[in-house]
Automatic annotation (TrEMBL):
Keywords: Hydrolase, Magnesium. This is Nudix hydrolase domain-containing protein. Pfam families: NUDIX (PF00293). One of its GO terms (molecular function) is hydrolase activity.
Length: 163
């Protein structure tokens, strides 16, 4: 039996990614909720979108259930209306400060309308801010995966300039 033919370049191993569900949570004025990263975070000095990784045991759960858990963990029991469609995707790469291992995250972004409730941020972040994001000001607030995600979101949706 002949061995498989090797290509000119060695085939690389498939990259492994964690899946993270992120939410573009908009208030009635179109501002987006951003969470200020800790100084020890890989996003230090910038903001992040609420959301996080799918955990073991949640693989077969509806994504809306994981989103609800993440939002409750990060911002408390706020009321929101989740839109069912994916609005953007992005990637985030970093070296874990806990394990010193490279982490690859694939972010799936959804949009939701904030309907009320007091925002109570977790210890994962140091502050929050509602920001009317534009193509120009995103660089002030976002970096890495959150920046790529919002850029992808702007490309998909018609751009409406702020009032």
């Amino acid at each position: 039996m002949k061995s498989p033919r090797l290509t000119k370049h060695r085939q690389r191993k498939n990259a492994l990614f964690f899946i993270s569900l992120k939410i573009i949570l908009r208030d009635k004025n179109g501002a987006v909720l951003l969470l200020k990263a800790k100084k020890t975070s890989t996003l230090a000095g910038y903001y992040d979108l609420p959301g996080g990784k799918i955990r073991e045991g949640e693989e077969k759960d509806p994504l809306s259930k994981t989103i609800r858990r993440e939002l409750q963990e990060e911002i408390g029991r706020v009321r929101y209306k989740l839109k069912p469609d994916i609005v953007a995707v992005s990637r985030h790469f970093y070296i874990s400060k806990k394990t010193n291992i490279k982490q690859n995250l694939f972010w799936i972004l959804f949009e939701a309308d904030y309907e009320g409730g007091q925002i109570k941020i977790s210890n994962e972040h140091v502050a929050y801010k509602w920001v009317r994001l534009t193509k120009k000001n995103i660089y002030t607030y976002l970096t890495e995966g959150s920046l790529e995600g919002i850029q992808s979101y702007f490309r998909r949706k018609p751009y409406v300039p702020p009032r």
